[in-house]
Amino acid sequence: MPWFRALKNTALSGLSVERAALTPKLALRGACGVALVIGFALVVGSPQLAVSSAFGAFASGVATFQRSWRPRPVLALSAAAGLAVSTFLGYLLVGTEPAFVALIAAWAFLAGMAWGMGPTSGVVAGLTVAVMLITVTLPTTVLGALGHAALIAAGGVVQAGLIVLFPVRPWGARRDALADALAGVADYARRLRHDPVAAFDPVPLMEARDAAAVSPRQARRRPRQLQGYRAMAERFRPALASLADPVVGGAPLEGPERDRVRELLGAAATVLDAAARAIRRGTRLRLPQEALDILQVPEGGGVLTGPARKAALRLIALTDDVVEAAQEPVEVTGRRGLLPARPATWHTAEDRPQRPRFLARPSLAALVPVALRSFRRELRWSSPVLRHALRVSGVVCAGYLLGDALPPLHGYWIPLTAVMVLRPDFSRTYERGFARLTGTVVGVAVAGGLMALASPGPYPSAALAVVSVGLMYLLMSTGYAIVSACISAYVVFLLGIAGTIWSQTALERIWLTATGGALAMLSYALFPAWETPRLRDRLADWLAANGRYALAVLDTLAQPAERAPRQVREALLDARAARQEWEEAAGRAQAEPVRHRGQLSRLSQRSATGAQSALITMGRAAMLLETHIPGQDAQPSQGAAEFAAALRPALTAAARAIREGEPVDLRAVHTALERWAAAAGDPPPVGLRTADLLTDALDDLAAAVNPK
User: Fold this and answer.
1) Domain-located, residue 401
2) Starting at the edge strand that comes first in sequence, how are the strands of the sheet with 330-333 ordered?
3) Alpha-carbon distance 558 to 552, whole Å?
4) Of residues 564, 541, 512, the one with CA closest to residue 615
5) Span 691-702, mean pLDDT?
6) Number of folded domains in the chain?
7) Same domain, 180 and 143
8) Where would I find the beta strands (DSSP E) of 326-484?
9) I need a labelling partner for 669 at 20 to 30 A (CA). Which of 457, 552, 600, 644 fits?
10) Can you tell me the distance from the alpha carbon of 330 to that of 341, in angstroms, rounded to the nearest whole number?
11) pLDDT of 507-536, one tens digit each?
């Protein structure tokens, strides 16, 4: 993509406004936290102290709006602690320019490396740098610096206290994540009625798994509806796919068997949608009578036979589990009224059901070794996170020195803008750059106009600042341009509390923000971390992860007595993570203004699309086979063992060939498949049919990536 088109696309994307669900209660609570801190500082302190403390409450509130599954009070307190430490160190060293430049260089580098732990850590760490650059311009002594740091920390305490005292929809985010996962599986069931090989997006299930990780204290307080349904959603997907697939399930595409399959898929989708609705709203599970009638084992066995009947029985059993998981009377919208909850019939301690296990989320203290491992992992020249950290550190230092050399008193806006704009990838950096400039012009124009017309004093300026931050919290999900406009107005009103002349603030902020944004975008162009040259590596990683998943399932078929369900589960999770990394990388690469010229690393968009489709099919074949894993007392499959023995080295060689741009050789896999087919009877077993699907997917992958 040419640079001009890339800049145009990123500019339009950055200025776009998205429709999002607004949360006025959350915004009001965050704005009240800022108002309390500003009001207290104005009453007992000075306007400068109010400005400093306001930034602490503001940044702590921003941290609570980040997408994270940690408790919101913990996010607010963590952000406030980091802000207090960075601000105090900045006050101590700001009088000695070389020492202060070294401090912001090191702090900015660490903030950039924090992206290795996730976006939330990176955003919060970047806020500590931005707030430090503002607050150290307010003159004070060492004792005053301690007071400023204490008030900044107090802002986080206030925000955390308001969250505890005035909870808004507790567990709401986790309810939404689990409901989205169930609704996604329900949508998949409906699409399978018309397309038996429809694709499935695993992202909702991955997010539900992240949301399910809780601390022991949270596990004791977690609502009953959030326990058990996620595992059921995971089990529904392979049962649905196996039932619908005409090759593995065996139901013809037309006829009575396919009609029965469509009925079961539709009824299962209805049950899943009902469960999603009940979880999202926290209400009783309401199931239509018609769906329950369909999800019954027919007298005489019904029309389905073979693998299709096995998948249908498993699907019916799963819907029974949905009713049982409700642990309360289930309302049936039909003739039966209420289904009673399953009675407790245990008589001894051994009969009593065990407390459900939960995914443990590490505490903040336990995250320290995780952060260190992330730091060591990303400390390599090819890492985009390391390059981002070096870029942020260099740009912040250069921006600070440039702003210090320029005549305006508010030169810190150059490095502040740069650190808020820079992201590890090209598209988000340039989107935020254009959005930041546009939002700044709008926000400064509106706030400056109000300051010029009304000439408010400290208290009216504080009220206007609170209104601005409330609007920012309310509209945070709609687009960065709107957020930038609210932040710009917030800063103008805050500095108005301290008596700063509005016209000077407005005019300086516009062109200094433009300078900082241009510096950030120029730094990425000069020191990029392009995703395009790494596409083959990402594709090879996905193939390797898919291969481990397929081999784990084949091993259980080859040696049922030694099957390891946990190994299959972990391989599936790794395959999903690799797929997500590939899709994110491919999306970023499409927006980049360059294409790698090397023959080994070049991967056209058509090849990337074909390879992605082939690997999705490969993962689906492994998932279909997982549905039919035999019991431990089943007979070992010699054909599956030989096929897995041929597939294992072939996948390793294929991954290496994709990385190096060489042809993919799958002859050994085809030979093993032919021997298995020759030894199998008629009809062929499910394992052979899925192995055939898997081999076809590998052939499609080879055709997509082999150099022409």
Assistant:
1) yes
2) 286-288, 330-333, 337-339
3) 10
4) 541
5) 92
6) 3
7) no
8) 330-333, 337-339
9) 600
10) 7
11) 777 888 888 889 998 998 889 888 888 889
